[in-house]
Design a protein that fits this description.
Elements lengths: L2 H13 L8 H11 L3 H45 L5
Length: about 90
């Protein structure tokens, strides 16, 4: 193409208005349909955290009961040994 013809095309392109297109609603509906709601992701992570904390609490409780039983046995033997002295 010649330089003059290109200059005329450039001028025509500068003077031309772009068509007004609003695709925001279409795009937002596709985006919202493609991803999970934030509430379900948040509640799922809370569910896993509560399950993990319950498992840790149960483990700690079992360890505490076993430790208490092991440590309480000698005390019971001492109390039984001197129980005959108390009226």
């Amino acid at each position: 193409m010649k330089r003059i013809k290109l200059d005329r095309l450039f001028d025509a392109a500068r003077n031309e208005d772009a068509p007004k297109v609003d695709v925001a609603d279409i795009v937002m509906s596709r985006v919202s349909a493609a991803r999970e709601p934030v509430a379900s992701v948040f509640s799922r992570s809370l569910m896993w955290m509560s399950m993990a904390s319950s498992a840790v609490a149960a483990t700690i409780m079992v360890a505490a009961v076993l430790t208490w039983q092991q440590n309480a046995d000698p005390i019971n033997e001492i109390i039984n040994a001197v129980a005959w002295a108390a009226p």
